[in-house]
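Fill-in record for Enoyl reductase (ER) domain-containing protein.
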Amino acid sequence: MKHVQYSRYHGGSKALEYVEVPIPKPKAGELLLKVEAISNNPVELRIQDGLMKHFLPLRFPFAPGTDVAGEVVSLGTGVKGFRPGDKVVAHIHVLKGGGYAEYAIASSSRVVLRVPEISASEAASIVVAGYTALQSARQVGIKSLAGGCEHLNVQIIGASGGVGTILLQLVKLSGAHVTVTCSDRNIELMRNLKADEVLDYQTQQGATYTSPSGRRYHRVFNCAHFVPLSNFSAQLQPNARVIDLTPTRRSIVVAMVNKVSLRSPHRFENFYMWDNQEDLQTMMELMGAGKVKAVLDTTFPLCKAGDAWDHCLKRRCAGKIILCSSPPISS
C-alpha cells in the first residue's frame, strides 16, 4: 500500500514522502481500515516542526494522520461491535499516526459507525474539530445542545476554520447569541451557519471585537492566533470566560498568571482536547440529524499531501482540508 511519512523534524511539506509499505495487521483490540478520507489537522504540521520532540519524541519514519473515515477490513482479537464491511470514522492517537495511508490501524475504542447519509469526507472532518468544539463549549459551561443558554453572548474569533465552523453551529444549538470574527471572504459562510453578528477582522469594529448591537460577551472562544486579554477586555461582561483553543507557550503563561491574579475580573484559560468515543458518537449523531453540517475547504489526493500542508499553512481555509486515499491495492 501507499502511505505518507517523514523521516526528520522540520522541513514542512518538503519532508513528506509518498512511499510503498506493507499493509499493517491489526493486533488485539484493533481494526484494519481501508481509508477513504483523512482530515488534515494543523497540529500535525506543528508536530513535524518539533512541537513535542523534547518530551514526546517521534520514532522515524513517522506517518501522520489521526482523523480517518473508511471501511473495516479485518478485526484483531477481542474486538466487538464491528464487522468487515462496516463504514466507520476513527480517531488515531496523534503520536501513533498512520492515517495518511490507503490502509490504517485504529483502536476499537476510538472508532464509531458512520451514519449512512454522511460521506467519508464529511465524517473525517468532524473528529478532532468536533472534539475540540464540543469539549471547549462544555469547559466554559455551554453544555446544552437544545437551548437553555439564551442569556449568553458569545464571541468566536477565527470562526471560519475547521473548529470554528463546528463550534458556531454547536453554540447556536445552545440558544446563545453568537458574534463571530472572520475575513471578509467568509462573511457569507458565517451568515449561512446562522451567526447572529459577523465582524470582518480587518475593520476597526472587527479589530476591537465590538458587537454591532453593543453586546458585551460572557464567553469568548479564540480559534485563531493568541490574542491578549487586554485586546477585548472592554467588550467583556464581568466574570467572562475566555478560552484559547490553540495553546501556545504565551497563552499558557497568561492563563497561569490569570489564575492566581486577584485583579482580573475575567478568566483566561486554555483548552486541551481528550479522546472520547462518546463525543465522537455525539458528533456523528448531530451530523446525521442535520443539526451540524461539515464545511469542507479543499480536497487533495493522498499523493498530494504536501500540497494540502502548504494550503493549510496559508491560513486561508474555510472549514477542513481533506485528503482522499488513492484507489487501494489488493490486500
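KEY FINDING: Residues 162-174 form the longest helix (13 residues).
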